[in-house]
Specification:
Blueprint (H helix, E strand, L loop, with lengths): L17 H6 E3 H9 L1 H9 L8 H22 L5 H15 L11 H18 L10 E8 L8 E10 L3 E8 L5 H7 L1 H15 L5 E8 L5 E7 L4 H20 L16 H5 L14
Parallel strand pairs: 1-3, 4-5
Antiparallel strand pairs: 2-3, 3-4, 5-6
Length: about 280
């Protein structure tokens, strides 16, 4: 795979049509659809604007710093901790521009935690300093029209030497390996498919690097085998259900423990049950 560097952006929250959403689809959109179809509606179709959460701000900043770190390794540049901290400070400030952030705890505490997990990662990363990436933050797509499915698109955080796909995640707790394998399967399978379409080769492994924001920062790496045919079949079924559901206007809530952290809780409580206008007037 030819090394390439791109810029990863957060999908905008502006309203989009069903036609737009079924022409192309990303792993993140599919995952949101699987988690709660009404949340999907509020985010992608209604385009309900919400303040950025502290967790999203931390995650975005950490990803940007890791992207810069990987770019530097790709270019063969030496690692400079002070320069990395300066980049972190600038990025933290830049990401604060735009919608207000609903700080649930002190901002400086969140910022210190974000830098703490990065420092810990740089000290304990399983990636050798001398290892040159195959690709950093590269945008890929897979045309699945021949199977009657939307075009699959996505950004891969990192492809390590040896065809190892890496995705970085921030978390407030240590992950359970089996649960991670289950809950991230749509994403990891999509990444495997995108890599194969772009390169004509099969990935050797997929790694999820979890930067854990506990009082004493931790790092957990989950490594998975190449995507199987069964996983590809499941992904295609998910995509079929996604297209069918959007065509039907099937936007129903999925109540559960996850509702406590959902940004659309109030809109969901005001939901009238209709398909044309899933939320009450004035919500």
């Amino acid at each position: 795979m030819t090394a390439a560097v791109g810029e990863k952006s957060i999908e905008p929250s502006s309203a989009r049509s069903i036609e737009e959403l079924t022409e192309t689809v990303s792993a993140s959109r599919l995952s949101t659809w699987q988690q709660c179809r009404l949340r999907f509606f509020f985010r992608y179709i209604a385009g309900v604007e919400k303040a950025r959460s502290p967790a999203l701000h931390v995650g975005s900043t950490v990803h940007a710093v890791l992207q810069q770190w990987n770019k530097s390794r790709w270019r063969g540049e030496p690692f400079d901790l002070e320069a990395t901290l300066a980049f972190f400070d600038r990025t933290w400030a830049e990401w604060k521009e735009g919608p207000d952030i609903d700080w649930r705890i002190d901002e400086e505490t969140s910022k210190a935690s974000a830098w703490g997990v990065l420092e810990h990662y740089f000290q304990h990363t399983p990636i050798p300093v001398s290892e040159k990436p195959e690709a950093v933050e590269v945008g890929l797509e897979a045309d699945l029209a021949s199977q009657g499915l939307p075009k699959l698109v996505g950004f891969i955080d990192l492809v390590r030497a040896g065809r190892i796909i890496v995705d970085f995640k921030t978390s407030s707790r240590s992950p359970d390996a089996e649960m991670v394998a289950h809950t991230t399967e749509t994403q990891t399978t999509a990444y495997g498919l995108l890599y194969r379409e772009a390169t004509g080769s099969t990935e050797s492994a997929i790694e999820l690097h979890h930067l854990i924001k506990t009082k004493a920062p931790k790092l957990a790496v989950n490594r998975f085998a190449p995507v199987s045919e069964a996983q590809l079949t499941r992904l295609f079924h998910v995509m079929e259900a996604y297209v069918d559901g959007l065509d039907r206007g099937d936007f129903i809530p999925s109540p559960g423990i996850q509702c406590g952290s959902c940004e659309f809780f109030n809109e969901c409580r005001a939901w009238s049950g209709g398909k044309e206008k899933p939320y009450a007037s004035g919500s």
